[in-house]
Specification:
single chain, elongated
Length: 476
């Protein structure tokens, strides 16, 4: 008869291998915890040695610029009306809220992030491996492994240098966009100023026309002229009034174009400070070419593209050197009850892929970038030739009107007005003199407008059209 107590003890007895399995799990947990702690410490040490944003290795000849704030600009608020607005204030308002400037600044900031990422070290890898579990009733073999890839040939530094060159090139494109905004503001400013002058001249002529109507009415009452003279003077007064209306429409259109660049919303029309010098500006073509080559941000962008392509070529050439993978670990062998170490190194054999294709591509891109500098230089000369043609034509017209035409037509009108009031001239002669002055004044204003807008374009390094399609390279 089997003892009941014995059966109870046998039922509570743990199965075979329970103790060694429990011991195995405890030791395995301790081993994994140790390796995890080592990995965390290694990661923290690597993070301290890595360069932070904007703290990468210095590049000879590359000036590090401050980070560009790309936070969304607050909604534009139209300033309260005030006596007048200066050109400097208009430029400040435009640069603060122009979408093209914010877009270019965001592209620079994105490139800065890529430069930071390119300079970061490779993360190490950790792992666990268990084998021969249960062999001879033991926990088997358990190992913790650490693996790290080492970049050779200075690839990390070269990659960051190439990314920094991209940052510099995009900074030059940001300067280009900024210049375009300034050019649009200056040209729009002159358009508004001379539209205002057209209005002023039209108002003066309207007063003169009203005076002539009064003279014709008095002479009709005195039986000195016929009713035809009065009707002709009234018709001329209405024609000049129509000219005034057209000038006001042109002024509103010019202001709206300026507002689209400055704020993008309907701005209150306020008088602008007339800062146009009375003397006609005189420019020199050869001096303009020299300044354009030295200061043009378009040229600087193309030259920065060459440096960026050279950095990419150096990075591609470094790809010929294989990267090295280091491996190490510790293994606990419960079968033989000992601890063993493990080390290893992996090196790919460059039998087929020696980065030949990437090197050929980078070399071709460098050649294209060098040719781009020559293309931009020729294009700038071509655009400058067109701009100088417009400048020379406008200058000749403005100079001839100011020196020869306007003094003579005004003097002739004054003589005829005095003679007409004394009955010495017919009204048709007065009408011809009046129209000559009107047309001469308006032609002179148009010549000045074209002259100063062309001067603004040349002085602004031929940059305008800030609201055109962006020319930034596609984001990777």
């Amino acid at each position: 008869m089997v003892n009941t107590t014995t059966r109870h003890n046998l039922a509570l007895r743990p199965p075979l291998g329970y103790h060694w399995l429990r011991q195995c799990c405890a030791r395995l947990s301790i081993t994994i915890a140790i390796f995890l702690l080592i990995a965390v410490i290694s990661s923290l040490a690597s993070a301290q040695s890595n360069p932070g944003p904007g703290q990468g290795p210095a590049i000879p000849g590359l000036r590090r610029l401050p980070a560009v704030e790309t936070a969304a600009a607050p909604p534009f608020e139209v300033p309260a009306p005030k006596p007048s607005v200066s050109l400097v204030e208009l430029e400040q308002m435009a640069l603060a809220h122009h979408p093209a400037v914010q877009e270019a600044a965001a592209a620079v900031e994105a490139a800065r992030g890529r430069a930071v990422q390119a300079g970061l070290r490779q993360n190490p890898s950790i792992g666990y491996e268990g084998t021969d579990i249960g062999e001879e009733g033991t926990a088997g073999k358990h190992a913790g492994i650490v693996q790290q890839q080492i970049l050779t040939g200075g690839k990390r530094t070269l990659a960051q240098q190439a990314a920094e060159r991209e940052v510099f090139q995009l900074q030059q494109q940001l300067n280009t966009v900024t210049q375009r905004v300034s050019g649009d503001v200056r040209m729009g400013y002159y358009d508004v100023i001379f539209s205002q002058r057209r209005i002023d001249i039209s108002r003066q002529l309207s007063k003169i026309a009203d005076t002539i109507v009064d003279v014709a009415r008095r002479r009709l009452e005195a039986k000195d002229v016929s009713s035809v003279d009065l009707l002709q003077s009234q018709a001329e007064a209405h024609r000049i009034a129509l000219q005034l209306t057209e000038s006001e429409i042109q002024y509103r259109a010019a202001w709206r174009r300026l507002a689209s660049v400055v704020s993008g919303v309907e701005m209150t029309q306020v008088p602008l400070v007339d800062e146009v010098p009375p003397a006609l500006p005189r420019l020199n073509f050869n001096g303009a070419v020299t300044r354009l080559r030295a200061e043009s941000p378009e040229m600087a962008t193309a030259e920065a593209g060459v440096e960026r392509a050279r950095a990419q070529l150096r990075l591609a050439e470094a790809g010929r050197y294989p990267n090295v993978t280091l491996r190490g670990g510790v293994q606990k062998n419960y079968v033989s009850d000992n601890t063993q170490g493990e080390i290893g190194i992996m090196l790919p054999l460059q039998l087929y892929d020696r980065n030949q294709g990437a090197i050929q591509e980078a070399d071709a891109q460098l050649l294209a970038a060098e040719r781009e500098v020559d293309r931009v230089d020729r294009q700038l000369q071509q655009r400058l030739a067109v701009a100088f043609q417009q400048y020379d034509l406008a200058y000749s017209r403005a100079e001839r009107y100011a020196r020869d035409i306007l003094p003579r037509v005004r003097q002739a009108r004054e003589l005829i007005e005095r003679g007409y009031s004394q009955g010495e001239f017919r009204y048709d002669e007065l009408l011809i003199a009046q129209r000559s002055v009107v047309q001469a004044d308006l032609d002179y204003i148009s010549a000045l407008n074209q002259l100063w807008q062309t001067v603004a374009l040349i002085d602004n390094l031929l940059l305008s059209e800030s609201l055109a399609d962006p020319t930034l390279p596609p984001m990777p």
